[in-house]
Specification:
heterodimer, A: about 220 residues, alpha/beta, Rossmann fold, six-stranded mixed beta sheet, four-stranded antiparallel beta sheet, B: about 400 residues, 2 domains, six-stranded mixed beta barrel, 17 helices, 14 strands, elongated
Chain lengths: ~220, ~400
Amino acid sequence: MLIQIVNLTKTYTIDGNIETPALRGVDLAIEKGEFTAIAGPSGSGKTSLLNLIGALDKATSGSISYEDKDITRIGISQLALFRLKEIGFVFQAYNLINTLTAFENVEYVMLLQGIPLSIRRKKAQEILNRVGLGEYINRFPHQMSGGQQQRVAVARAIVAEPKVILADEPTANLDSKTAESLLDLMRQLNQEKGVTFIFSTHDKMVMDKAKRLINLHDGKVVK
Amino acid sequence: MFTFLKIAFRNIIRNRRRSLITISAVGFGLAALIFIWAFVDGAHIQMTENYTSLLSGHIQVHKKGFQAKEQLEINIPNPQGIVSGIESNPKVLAAALRIKAFGLAASAQNSSGVLILGVFPDKEIKVSSIAKRIKEGKFLESGKDNSIVIGRRLAENLNVVLDDKIVLMSQAFDGSIASAAFRIKGLLDTGVEEIDKGIAIISYKAAEDLFVMQDRASEIAIRLKSVNDSELVASQIGQALNSSDLEALPWQEISPILKQWIEFDNGFIWIIVLVVMIVVAIGILNTVLMGVLERRREFGILLALGTRRRQIIMTVAWESLFLGVFGTIIGLILGYFLSLYFGKTGINLTIFTQALNAFYVDAFVYPKVSLGHTIISTSLVLITSIIVSLYPAYHAANLKPVDAIRSI
């Protein structure tokens, strides 16, 4: 088992006293190499669940075990290390670093991992070629289309070879053609490298392409 | 590290207008600091030079107690040998004997209390610039012992002009009444009130005869090649004198008020430094903090990708340092050339002439850039730019990734 989630809850406190539950006791197990979509309407808790799996946020209660290690109980620096080594993120709004070029964005995570320059350059070039952006390596995010930016985001997520890639509504801002090509790319990477993909989505195309579909409703897994 | 440098640098470029305003604020602040410090240093050099060259010299040798009482009884016996010894010091330009006593100058119409100074004209012109301050007539000449030079204000008070006769009266060293008549050879206008209305200069020989001071001197005035050596050479001369009766005083001890005024000025400069640093700090803090708040999302992404807190802090600090460095370069160039330009042309302060004369400052002040003060100013600006980045850096490093990414 790669990820084991037990009775996970997340409650947001708004204005100091209004409590809004986002997750109400989620139990879930994810195997290595899965290509899974978490579906559900807006406000169902998809993004909250993804943020907790990716150690971007703290759970209110419950546990998330990653390779049998409970990541809800580790410190901030270790969480940063966990994210760096184990997780790749693809966000809905691309979230590239605006001051870095496509190449530098892809190279960045490898730099944090301490990978030598020559290897970084080789891998960044390879992965950008792979996502069809070999000619755009020196472009800054604002010089690229949404689809191109999302491809860079996928390249950035995959290049450091994490075990899990969390993609929060990755196709939400893309047209259907670009979205399909991006999903095909991620599926290929999943099959070739065995990387586990977990999507949050309410896009039917993503649900259709996913090998496993988890439905979330009002903060609970319903199926 | 290079990537964090790159992010920091590109963020500065990204917000060109704001960065330029901050860099300009830092630059103008530093330029102002360099210029003000150069101005004050220039004024201090002028004050010291003017004061020491006017009459006092860089060092004076007296019998102990003379500085306080200025009485004929407190004198240096057989001074000629001492002068020769002093002049053998390689840092000494010239040394001149003087006889000093208080007395009364009287004309047919009026009388006034004066300081009577007996000098060797040939030596005196090497030690002081008093001869250059003659506005009417000439300075004393060797061998013409009945000539006298007095201040212009004194001449007005006595109602005398050039070539008129005045009588000097005092008490001689032996207790007898000293009295002699002199013809006015020149009138002094130093701009220093107390000198212009209260000094009478006669030849050393005339003073010796008047005060019965054969083979005795009141003081030895010394001019050095560099005023900066005053304290050092005074100490060397003091040791060489090898006498418990005699003392060698640098100008700082001859005129403690001047020294204190310079020290007060130097203290005041630090208040200006503090104000400039506050302006620089606010400028940089504003830019960096705004940049951090605007880029919460970006810092959230960096944190989400696994960037460590210290790396975030470093990125923000680099950004601040870049602003500081660019501002410093502009400030250094601007401040240096501004000081250099006015160092040549001088700053015209004619409207303050009367007030400035009291502090031995001329109507034109020539700023002088000091390497030490420039290094201090520059270092302070750079250190300030790093220190003020700590708060925004800490803020950025402690963002919760999920909240930061959500923010717009």
